[in-house]
Specification:
The protein is an alpha+beta fold and 246 residues long. Strand 2 and strand 3 form a beta hairpin. Helix 1 crosses helix 2. Helix content is 25%, strand content 33%. A 9-stranded antiparallel sheet has the order 2-3-9-11-10-6-7-4-8, covered by helices on one side. Strands 1-5 form a two-stranded parallel sheet.
């Protein structure tokens, strides 16, 4: 997926950063080098990274190894011939920071949404401090009546870390809302690689083929969970089907 995330900073070394700035003959400090790298990644997603993202990028880089997994309870795991077909889980209730964007491209909506969330995570909040990061970052997709085309608006959500669940900090950005969500039960299947509208649509179709017809799962609303750096060729993602009832 064209998600501009803190994961883009994982494993950066001097050679990678140098590759991104070879066209710039002027010496660059570390902040400029990081921003240049993000701008290079973003350009492949048809998104620009503004200079005021330097602070959040720095903060995410310093804390890149400190991430909380979303809390969930496993329900079941299904295999065939040693291959995992899908899992079922219940994710806990809690507060999420959410932002919805309706850009021309799915990739742009996710990227622009997460950059807003980055600013919120990195001190642009009522607590005035870095909040910490949870994974995965989840996008919520609604479908058109044909059942195969994504609606333009895509919601990107970040589960607040445990320390802030009881008293969630408020965002400075009015586009971000703090939402309390009840527990959800999902059927989830892992897939590797990119998460464009095309690949996600294919994964939705594949999981329906595996599951067969059932009225217990939503068909107009899916979620995509992203765990790893978009620069990793076989990065881990999941498609989530939502159970109508726990």
């Amino acid at each position: 997926m064209a998600l501009i995330s803190l994961e883009d900073l994982d494993g950066l070394d001097d050679e990678q950063l140098d590759d991104d700035i070879t066209d710039n003959p002027e010496p660059m400090d570390e902040d400029d080098r990081l921003l240049s790298h993000w701008q290079a990644v973003a350009s492949t997603h048809q998104v620009s990274v503004p200079p005021d993202m330097t602070g959040p990028i720095q903060e995410m880089t310093r804390n890149s190894q400190q991430r909380e997994p979303l809390p969930f309870a496993p329900v079941s795991r299904h295999e065939k011939m040693g291959e995992e077909l899908y899992e079922e889980r219940v994710y806990a209730a809690g507060h999420w920071a959410c932002v919805t964007r309706g850009e021309d491209l799915y990739e742009q909506s996710i990227s622009m949404g997460f950059m807003k969330l980055m600013r919120f995570i990195c001190k642009e909040n009522s607590a005035g401090k870095y909040l910490g990061m949870t994974v995965p970052v989840v996008s919520n997709i609604h479908m058109m009546e044909d059942g195969t085309t994504f609606k333009k608006d895509v919601q990107t959500s970040f589960f607040l870390p445990a320390d802030f669940q009881t008293n969630p900090p408020q965002p400075h950005d009015s586009d971000i809302t703090i939402v309390y969500r009840e527990p959800i039960r999902v059927v989830t299947r892992t897939f590797l690689g990119t998460t464009t509208e095309e690949t996600v649509t294919r994964q939705i179709s594949l999981l329906w083929e595996i599951l067969g017809a059932t009225d217990d799962l939503c068909r107009d609303n899916y979620m995509v969970a992203v765990y790893e750096n978009p620069g990793i060729p076989r990065r881990r993602n999941e498609i989530w089907f939502i159970r109508r009832n726990l």
